[in-house]
Structure formats: structure tokens, C-alpha cells
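Run log // design_07
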């Protein structure tokens, strides 16, 4: 590992590890609404309730309790004396109101218990198995109790919460103090640590502390300002941080990926290239149209993305080129008028109903069936393995298996592969795949479709967008033919021939929006 390698993860508590952000928001709303109502009655002012989305996110989320009270009241032109942390919840001071909110929060926790985000816990466990140090930070003075209640204390080497901050005189977020103190106690440089935050104030704090990577968690996809506020990447699920600590990934993040120009920043140049030509869009599914998640069935296409795809289809030929089974990817996308390729391009259905299955591959179907049965038998006893059969491929998912089991899984896959030379192995994101050992891939599928749709001509510019190794086959094929534009989604782990980078599915969405607004 180079000096710049990440060695630690510092995670915010509420909204990243536990689902208590919702309970905090609810308690803030109850407290402020009651207070604002009383005030409006006493002073004959208009009553404007606390908005659980905008006010919460802008003024209180992620901040120490009393800073949150002050920041929201100031936004409403209300000035109260600071008071003292010992003020009773009935006192009309900043501290009094803060204590009132805390009382409500504790009542909610008592009633509802603490829910955790399982994706985060799985990642933290995996990182700890890899020897990565972990810290939890929170502005909340209840952090210790919440961790105890959720039985998570043992998963973190260091904890810095509201109580510690007061003792150590640390400034609250968006100042970087809590993160810097966590890094100091973990004995790592800020640039060796990644910060994982769901609040804008926390993302700003991570950026201000010059941490190696600032990850914004936006589970509902509802917080578009995170990137503008300094997040390097925005994710919906911690599963997307897979392999973030592997030296290869870090190396590629600093070399291959970061040297690629952003397709968003260079959109004008791309649009210029497209003027007076027809665009043909080829898009991968997992990791491109949807974030990577623990279980394939949970990679649901958002309504917003579906509506953008509809708009794109009205203007250009659009094809989804997926590793999934053809029927599966069609069901996930659920749109007509698109061309679909499943099983990494072995199984193609054009929008006019033409169904093309790669001829040679058909003869390997009995081999695939046999291999599938062997995989199911021999991997049966290993927890966390999920076998997904596609017509022309078998995916062996190990995302939910322990790090130590991966080697054994690969050995079993390799031994079965030796018994079936008609098949070949390919690796993807936490996945081994067995496919027909035939010179056919997503790149070949793209050119098959270009020919079939009479689009393989100079005035057509194909754009391919994808995130994984199998997508590189298509990007490679376009590059080899000196044709079109290749866009990689996420920092690639292997050398790429892509022309541009989009950092995640959210940027893919922005790219589509930009395409839809071109003349
Ligand atoms: O070519 P794609 O459409 O991107 O398909 C590639 C594989 O995607 C799916 O697996 C990946 O996404 C899952 C859901 O996010 C994730 O759990 C898994 O770890 C990833 O490898 C799909 O299940 C496979 O069949 C595709 O080959």
C-alpha cells in the first residue's frame, strides 16, 4: 500500500449506521412545531411549521444539538438566549429547547427501539476482517447509548460523540474537528481515512478535514446537493463501497479513473460531437442504471430513471446491454421500444421483436445445466453464496459471504470449470460468472445491434455506458473500431479505454437529463 492508501473508515452514526435520523427528525419537528405554535399564539404571528425535509436537512441534521436549535431559530428570525446545558426542557432558551427535543427523542427510542442499516454493518464487519480500523462519530450525546442498545459498540475502535466533543472542546460539524479527532485516535492521517456521512454538514466537515475520500450516503436519492457540498461519491447503499480498501482499487482510483474527464463537465464537447449526427445509446443495467446492492432482486430501477429512459427512447435508439437474464432485465426495466441484450449479449431481443440467440452458445446449454447443478451441490454449505442462473451464464454471487470464504468459493468454481472446458470464467463485482467459452461478448452484441438496426454508419455515434469488466468489452470494441464514445461508471479497477467517466448512477441520471435537453 502506498502512503496515500486508505487505512480507516470513519462513519457517522445517525442515517449511516442506525436509522435514528428519522427519529431525530421526528423529535425536532414535534418540539419546534409546538414551540412555534405557542409563539404564534402569544405574539399573533403566522404559524409556519418545521419542515421535516428542508428545515431538518438545512439547519439541524448532523449538527450538535444546541447549534441545530440556534441555526433553525435564526432562519426564522428568532433570537433566544443561549442558556445553560443544565436548563430544564421547559426553559425558553436554546439549551432548554435542545433538551426538550432530546427528551422527545429518548421517548421515541424507548417506544420504537433502534433499527440498524444492515448494509453498513456487513461492510464494517468485512472491513474489520481485512484489518481496516473503524470509528463512529456523532454530534449526538446519545451515541454511546444507541450503540449499546443496538449491540454495535464492539464494531468500532474509536467513538467520538457529543459528550466527547464537549469534553475535548471540539467544534461541531461542519467544522472537521470530530473527524480529525477520530483519525488522530485511530492513528491515521486524514488522507488515509474515508469519511462516510449522510448529512450535508458532515460532508462539508469531511471535505474541510481533507480526508482521503468523502462518501455521501443518500439512501432515498433525495439529497442532490451532497456532491456540490464536497462529497467525492454519493451512494445509496454501503454495498457500493465494495473493495474500496483493496490496493488495486485504490491504485486505479488514483490512476486510471481520476485521469478520465467527466462526461458531465465535458458535456458541451460531447454535444458538439453529436450535432448533425444520430446518437445510439447502449446502456448497462447494474451499477449504471441502479446502484449496486446486496441482492440482485433489490436493484430496482427508480421511476425517475425509467422516465428519463422513456424520454431518451423517444429521441434515439436505446439498448440495454446486461449480464442479467434477458427476461429478468426486461422485467426490471419494464419499457417497450427498447432493444435488450441479456446474458452478457448472448441473448438479444430487438424492439421489433427479433429474437437472436448466439448460435454456438446454444450447444453449451447442457454444459451450463450440469455446471449449475455441481455449483449448487458443492457451494451449498458455504453461507452467503447465491447462484443466479441466466440462460447463457451462471453468476456465483459472494457479496454476502465472509471475506475468508471467497478463496474457497473460487477454488470450487475453478474445479468445476476444469471439468467443463466449453465454459469460461469471468469476474465482476463480487461475482464469478461461468459463460460459454465463445468469442462473443457485450461488444459483439453492440455491433450485432448496430448492423441489425442499420446504424453501423458514419453519421451514427454510438455511446456505451457501463460500470463493470464486461462493459469494458463493449467500450473496447468501440475504441478498436474508432467509433463512438465509451463512458465508464465509477472508478475502474482495471485499465479502461473509456473516453469519459461518470462517477455513479446519479451522474448517469444527470447525463441523461443533459441529453434530453439537447436540441
Ligand atoms: O451487465 P449488468 O447489467 O451490469 O449485470 C452484471 C451483473 O449484475 C448483477 O450483479 C451485480 O449487481 C447486483 C445487484 O446490485 C450485486 O448484488 C452483485 O454483486 C453485482 O455483481 C446481476 O445479478 C448479474 O447477473 C449480472 O451479471
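design_07 sequence
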Amino acid at each position: 500500500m502506498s502512503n496515500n492508501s486508505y487505512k480507516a473508515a470513519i462513519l457517522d452514526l445517525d442515517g449511516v449506521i442506525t436509522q435514528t435520523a428519522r427519529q431525530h427528525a421526528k423529535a425536532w419537528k414535534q418540539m419546534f412545531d409546538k414551540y412555534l405554535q405557542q409563539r404564534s399564539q402569544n405574539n399573533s404571528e403566522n404559524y409556519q411549521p418545521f419542515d421535516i425535509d428542508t428545515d431538518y436537512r438545512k439547519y439541524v441534521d448532523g449538527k450538535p444539538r444546541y447549534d441545530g436549535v440556534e441555526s433553525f431559530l435564526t432562519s426564522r428570525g428568532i433570537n433566544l438566549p443561549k442558556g445553560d446545558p443544565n436548563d430544564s426542557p421547559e426553559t425558553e432558551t436554546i439549551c432548554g429547547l435542545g433538551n426538550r427535543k432530546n427528551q422527545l427523542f429518548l421517548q421515541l427510542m424507548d417506544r420504537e427501539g433502534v433499527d440498524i442499516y444492515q448494509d453498513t454493518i456487513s461492510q464494517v464487519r468485512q472491513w474489520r476482517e481485512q484489518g481496516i480500523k473503524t470509528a463512529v462519530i456523532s454530534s449526538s450525546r446519545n451515541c454511546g447509548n444507541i450503540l449499546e442498545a443496538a449491540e454495535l459498540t464492539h464494531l468500532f475502535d474509536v467513538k467520538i460523540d457529543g459528550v466527547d466533543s464537549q469534553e475535548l472542546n471540539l467544534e461541531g460539524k461542519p467544522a472537521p474537528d470530530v473527524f480529525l479527532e477520530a483519525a488522530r485516535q485511530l492513528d491515521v492521517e486524514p488522507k488515509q481515512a474515508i469519511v462516510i456521512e449522510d448529512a450535508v454538514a458532515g460532508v462539508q466537515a469531511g471535505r474541510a478535514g481533507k480526508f482521503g475520500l468523502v462518501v455521501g450516503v443518500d439512501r432515498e436519492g433525495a439529497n442532490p446537493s451532497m456532491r456540490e457540498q464536497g462529497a467525492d461519491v454519493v451512494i445509496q447503499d454501503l454495498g457500493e463501497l465494495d473493495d474500496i480498501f483493496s490496493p488495486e482499487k485504490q491504485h486505479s482510483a488514483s490512476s486510471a479513473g481520476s485521469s478520465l474527464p467527466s462526461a458531465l463537465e465535458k458535456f458541451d464537447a460531447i454535444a458538439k460531437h453529436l450535432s448533425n449526427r444520430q446518437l445510439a445509446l447502449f446502456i448497462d443495467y447494474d451499477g449504471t442504471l441502479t446502484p449496486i446492492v446486496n441482492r440482485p432482486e433489490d436493484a430496482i430501477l427508480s421511476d425517475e430513471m425509467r422516465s428519463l429512459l422513456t424520454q431518451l427512447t423517444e429521441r434515439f435508439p436505446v439498448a440495454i446491454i446486461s449480464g442479467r437474464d434477458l427476461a429478468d432485465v426486461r422485467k426490471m426495466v419494464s419499457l417497450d421500444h427498447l432493444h435488450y441484450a441479456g446474458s452478457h449479449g448472448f441473448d438479444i431481443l430487438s424492439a421489433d421483436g427479433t429474437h437472436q440467440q448466439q448460435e454456438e452458445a446454444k450447444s453449451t446449454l447442457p454444459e451450463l445445466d450440469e455446471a449449475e447443478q455441481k455449483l449448487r451441490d458443492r457451494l451449498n454449505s458455504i453461507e452467503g453464496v447465491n447462484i443466479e442462473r441466466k440462460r447463457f451464464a451462471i453468476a456465483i454471487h459472494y457479496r454476502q459471504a465472509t471475506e475468508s470464504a471467497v478463496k474457497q468459493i473460487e477454488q470450487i468454481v475453478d474445479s468445476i470449470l476444469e471439468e467443463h472446458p466449453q465454459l469460461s470464467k469471468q469476474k465482476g463485482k463480487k461475482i464469478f460468472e461461468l459463460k460459454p467459452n465463445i468469442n462473443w461478448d457485450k461488444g459483439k452484441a453492440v455491433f450485432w445491434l448496430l448492423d441489425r438496426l442499420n446504424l453501423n454508419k458514419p453519421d451514427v455515434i454510438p455511446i456505451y455506458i457501463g460500470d463493470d469488466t464486461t462493459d469494458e468489452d463493449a467500450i473496447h470494441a468501440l475504441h478498436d473500431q474508432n467509433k463512438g464514445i465509451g463512458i465508464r461508471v465509477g472508478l475502474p479497477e482495471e485499465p479502461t479505454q473509456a473516453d469519459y467517466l461518470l462517477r455513479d448512477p446519479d451522474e448517469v441520471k444527470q447525463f441523461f437529463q443533459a441529453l434530453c435537453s439537447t436540441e
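Residues 277 and 459 are 5 Å apart (CA to CA).
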